[in-house]
Amino acid sequence: MMSGSIPLAVCYGLLAIFVVAFLIRSLKIARLPLHLRWELAPVPKEKGRGRYGGSYLEEFEWWKKPREESLVAEVAYMLEEIVFLKALWAHNRRLWWFSYPFHIGLYLLVLAAFGGVLASGMAAVGVAGLGWGILPKWIVWVAGVGYVLTALGALGLLASRLADPKLRLITTPVALFNLVLVLAVAVTGALAVTTVPGSAVDAVAFGRALLTAGPVPHMAGVLTAHLILAMAFLAYLPFSQMMHFVAKYFTYHQVRWDDRPLERGGAMEREMQKLLQQPVTWAAEHVHADGRKNWVDIATEEVPR
Amino acid sequence: MSGRVRIKDIGLRGDQPLAEIDTDELIPLPPPYDNPGGTIQELKPDAAERMVCNLDGVVALSLPHPESPEEERALVDHFAEGLKKLFTRENNWSFLQPLTLAMEYCVGCQTCSDACHVFKASGQEIYRPTYRSEVWRRLVKKYAKPNGKLMAPLTGADVDLNWTTISRLYELAYRCNLCRRCAQVCPIGVDNGLIAHELRKLFSQELGWAPRELHEQGTVLQLQVGSSTGMNQVLVKDNVEFIDEDMTDETGIEVTTPWDKEGADVLLIHNAGEIMSWPENPGAFAIILNAAGIDWTLASEGIEYDGVNYGLFYDDVQLARIALKHVSAAKKLGVKKIVMGECGHQHKAIMTVADRILTGELRDVKRVSCLPLLEEIVFSGKIEFDPSKNDFPVTLHDPCNIVRNLGIVEPQRRILRYLCPQFREMTPHGVDNYCCGGGSGFAVMSGNNFTDWRVAVAGRMKFKQILDAFADQPGPEVKKYVCAPCSNCKGQIRDMLQYWGALEKSGITYGGLVELIVNAMVDVKEPFIKWEMH
Ligand code: SF4
Ligand code: SF4
To answer: Which of the two ends of chain B, N or C, has the fewest CB atoms closer than 10 A to its terminal CB?
Structure first.
């Protein structure tokens, strides 16, 4: 069986790219300026009304009453979406059959990865040997099942993208590459778990090496390939559209469900006043922009009657 | 139906339509509306010489051809500039976050397609919510990102930016009702309606291209004269006086409309189209508010008698100008609150979309929908009702701007369940409703053969829903009522019922909510609802 090792610098480089790029991209979305209200029913947190899509605007003098919000309803909605991919189940069942195992597989892999980091940490500080320490053995199974589900899902999604004309219409080479990359990570992972004896122990040794900057152990070829691919995937992730799991937080919480009215004297008003001070350069004649006038000038300008 | 259209085809073969609509391929309607399934008038033979008509055999916008290759190039360059401006904070802070999210995170699952009534009715590839968005996305990737052209083979950004692309995209931006039904089902929360909206903004704010009905005859006229109907302050007061007289004659109740009453509790703002086309609606409002003893007024200052704000559909600058005027004049008059009449986009423009630009003392004026007010009145016991006067089949259309966008779902239903014994829902309804096909300004757009398209294609799902809701009594002998508490929806439903001859064939007419309320009032002796097309 072929074997290999990975230079520590490469590992650190890839992981550093992941962390930094992930933070930058997430912050970039979060830092985008306050936008105009653009809520979309249903807003589940609307207590007693979210169920049918109602909002506080159903009250005649809503500003005289306290806003009633239900965190439980909001969290329940989110959990259904995250755990069951409910929107896809309800509106695109055919794709759900592939997308669901794909995503569940990834959730399991994230869980197993956390387990791996924990085990490596324990090994690094010496509270446990090169094994799973206090973690249950079935964590290996979590990873194994994760690999298989992800691989099956990725294959199904790939086949759908290639075979279904309506998906092909908007499929780009990058979208196919993303699926192939995930597939490669999952397949090498599955092979490592099933064909390399002691692969879990090797993986923990690898984790310990990363944490202690110690020498990277020599590992079976397929496990080496898997670890390199997995780290390359992480480094690539923040640059890809697969960051949609982060984006989704913002599309829901800061767009669809953000129905906060502006409050006089509040932080939102101050931010808005700053935004309105920005110069406008739209070129159409009716805008009357000259690059110096700001939004207030333009919006309050008197039109000759 | 034309074969599979690819995304990049939008920029190719500009002398031919990108797609062709065959009305026989549209989803079938029940008899007697199945044969033929609608007609879309052919364009006049010289149409292609006079204007651009290369999208789908339909022309909403009458865009002239550029006069020289230089002009053509300049326009294309302008478009590219606008594409970049959409992503600058200064120029587009108003929608930058939702737009960036929509730009970068679509996973291409096509879940949104089946939610779109335009696509569902037609099966046309180019009407998929994603078609327009993906064209735009690829243009942004290639022409508005660093190294975009270099990376194009990898990113799949294969759309060429040329005259064909931008002229078709302009027309295509007006094949979407901005109803956001697609956004509701998107697992990621990507908003294809917003993308169409932003494209319209780019065309308007950068190139000065917008439908005449929305711009010159819409927001520009409103800012100049006071109303997009062309009515000035004098004329509107005259017209309302006529309406008051008519209502008094018709109902035997003395109807007077107060004007410019300082410090009134309620400033009611109608869509001025009501005063011109459906006088019974402002009339019914006056009857109800007077009977309930509400301290209310209409206002004639500036643009205060017309709640229309077409800026919502195509231009942030015009949107802001009009919304600020609406609220400033109310503040000056010292009223406590503005109550939106039965107009959906007015609701959305003043109540939510403009909410955050109304700062400082403008916040003293509260803004609220007429629907909860009507609910309060109907259940207050101040007016006596006899629901048996409304004993005919009634169904309810949910205006997207009030229901899906603002979440005002139940007040209108509670009124109908109480006052209309034969009320029945459409399927689907509430926040899952289908747009009437007139949304985003279409209801007032009627250039060339566009009315045929918006009725036969965009309005098709709604018409089918209406017929299905009345399927238990389909014949013309049973009179039926579609309640649409929104001016623009009413305009579209009127055109739809006329196009299909639905009053004659099925006994279906339409109107607002207040008409049904007045019709059920014990004090109103004669039937208020007229079973005619108006
Ligand atoms: S917009 Fe949403 S539903 Fe439509 S293809 Fe993109 S991700 Fe899927
Ligand atoms: S906003 Fe409405 S009309 Fe436009 S693409 Fe989405 S569903 Fe279709």
So the answer is: C
The predicted structure's pLDDT at residue A304:
61
Contact list, B114 vs chain A (CB under 8 Å): 91-92
The candidate with the shortest Cα–Cα distance to B127, out of B1, B39, B212, is B1
**Model ipTM value:** 0.94
Task: Find out whether B219 and B322 touch, Cβ atoms under 8 Å.
Answer: yes
Contacts of A83 (CB under 8 A, 6+ apart): none
Number of domains in chain B: 3
Q: Which residue among B346, B376, B406 closes a domain? A: B376
* Cβ-based burial of B313 (10 A; exposed 0-12, middle 13-18, buried ≥19): buried
pLDDT of residue B1: 39
Question: What tokens does B358 get?
Answer: 């109304």
Percent of chain B residues topping a pLDDT of 70? 99
Strand partners, B395: B424, B482
User: Which residues lie closer than 8 Å to B63 by C-beta, 6 or more apart?
Assistant: B51, B52, B167, B170, B171, B209
Does some domain include residue B527? no
* Boundary of a domain, candidates B349, B376, B403: B376
The Cα A231–Cα A13 span in angstroms is: 9
In the reported structure, the alpha carbon of residue B190 is separated from the centroid of ligand 1 by a whole-number distance in angstroms of 6
- Interface probe for A, chosen from B314, B317, B319 (most Cβ of A below 10 Å), is B317
Chain B residues with CB under 8 Å of A166 CB are 110, 113, 128
What is the residue type of B154?
Answer: L
Q: How far is the CA of A7 from the centre of ligand 1 (A)?
A: 40
Q: Whose CA is nearest to atom 7 of ligand 2?
A: B116
Tens digit of pLDDT for each residue in B80-109? 999 999 999 999 999 999 999 999 999 999
Residues B240-250 have pLDDT tens digits of: 999 999 999 99
pLDDT, tens digit (0-9, with 9 covering 90-100), for A7-42? 899 999 999 999 999 999 999 999 999 999 999 999
Whether B359 and A42 lie within 8 Å, measured CB to CB: no
Closest CA to B205 of B95, B314, B55, B104: B314
All domains of chain A, ordered by start, with CATH?
A: 2-33+93-237 (1.20.950.20), 267-300 (no CATH)
The chain-wide mean pLDDT, for chain B, equals: 96
Q: What is the span of the domain harbouring residue B484?
A: 384-519
pLDDT digit string, tens, across residues B460-517 = 999 999 999 999 999 999 999 999 999 999 999 999 999 999 999 999 999 999 999 9
Count CB atoms within 10 A of the CB of residue A45.
21
- By CB atoms closer than 10 A (0-12, 13-18, 19+), residue A48 is exposed
Per-residue confidence band for A303, with pLDDT thresholds at 50, 70 and 90? low
Q: Do B431 and A175 touch (CB under 8 A)?
A: no
As a whole number of angstroms, the distance between CA A216 and CA A7 comes to 7
